[in-house]
Amino acid sequence: MIEAIGLFAWLAGVGGAPVPATDPLTQPIETSRSAEWLAPVKPEKIFGKTYAVGFGGLSVALIDTGKGLVLVDGALPQAAPAILANVRKLGFDPKDIKYILSTEPHFDHAGGLAALARDTGATVIASERGAEGLRSGRHAADDPQLGYGGNWPAVANVRTLKDGEVLRLGKTAITAVATPGHTMGSMSWTWQACEGKRCKSVVFAASLNPVSAEGYRFTAKAGAPFLKGFEASYRKMNALPCDILIAAHPDNVGDGRYSEKPDACRAYADRSRKALAKRLAEERAGAR
């Protein structure tokens, strides 16, 4: 684990120029896991023109469409300079980023979106429910994690896509896949990455962890839509073509930044299903 002071110095330095301490869009959000989440990792090619530009504990993907770049997720606010530095290290110009796709309206994945959009001119895209959270910079009123409190830099302009809609840019078609449960606005994204005639289906999966703030109960009436959401998401993850799985938190796919195991998406859904079943059993037994 990296000491927070050293981490934030690294984040400022790799961006090419220090970020002003007064920059409201990159003020650090400090948690017990921030240093772990933002552990620096070298950017790398995953397959074809899909790249990893994120961190040890938070995934950020980059897609080169041939007519512009697409970024997936934005990590914490203080991570924005490091993300752009990683894009440059791969030989790309951040100003060529046309879209930034959001998986969920939580600070660990959406905190950096406002700064990234400002610094690149890119359009942020999310689900309708996700966009509400991004515009407010706060948890939704029904979010299981609402009790944690806190907020992140709001994103003024957000374009929305519905489940199954396709975003096209250059040679790439990216499909929005609604995967509610962790939040009701969670959205996963899938596309084809190719090397010559060999293509692979890439899935960038939103979190499916059944976690909440203290006192929340999925077995209560308010939890019913989330349980239905999880079940719908499991069915979708099981059915998706999935040669490469990138999870919003890399540790949810096992070792490494992504998984190329044949059953990666099914295993991802199954881990969540088992965790949710355990959580519900504990609630019903009065253990929570």
In short:
With 288 residues, the protein is an alpha/beta fold.
Please tell me about this protein's structure.
With 288 residues, this protein is of the alpha/beta class. Helix 7 (224-239) packs antiparallel against helix 8. Strand 2 and strand 3 (61-64) form a beta hairpin. The two termini are 30 Å apart. Helices cover 28% and strands 20% of the residues. It has a 7-stranded mixed β-sheet. A 5-stranded mixed β-sheet has the order 8-9-10-11-12, with no helix packed on it. It has one domain (4-20, 33-284): Ribonuclease Z/Hydroxyacylglutathione hydrolase-like (Metallo-beta-lactamase, Chain A, 4-Layer Sandwich), CATH 3.60.15.10.
Write the layout of secondary structure elements.
Elements: H1 4-13, H2 34-37, E1 44-47, E2 50-52, E3 61-64, E4 69-72, H3 80-89, E5 97-101, H4 107-110, H5 113-120, E6 123-126, H6 128-136, E7 158-160, E8 166-169, E9 172-178, E10 187-195, E11 198-205, H7 224-239, E12 244-247, H8 264-284
Parallel strand pairs: 4-5, 5-6, 6-7, 11-12
Antiparallel strand pairs: 1-2, 2-3, 3-4, 8-9, 9-10, 10-11
What amount of the residues lies in strands?
15-25%
CATH architecture: 4-Layer Sandwich
Give the overall silhouette: globular
What's the CATH C level?
Alpha Beta
Number of strands: 12
Helix fraction? 25-40%
Provide mean pLDDT, rounded: 93
Which sheet architecture does the biggest sheet show? 7 strands, mixed
Helix-strand category? alpha/beta
Number of domains: 1
Strand order of the largest sheet: 1-2-3-4-5-6-7
Quote the distance from N terminus to C terminus. 30 Å
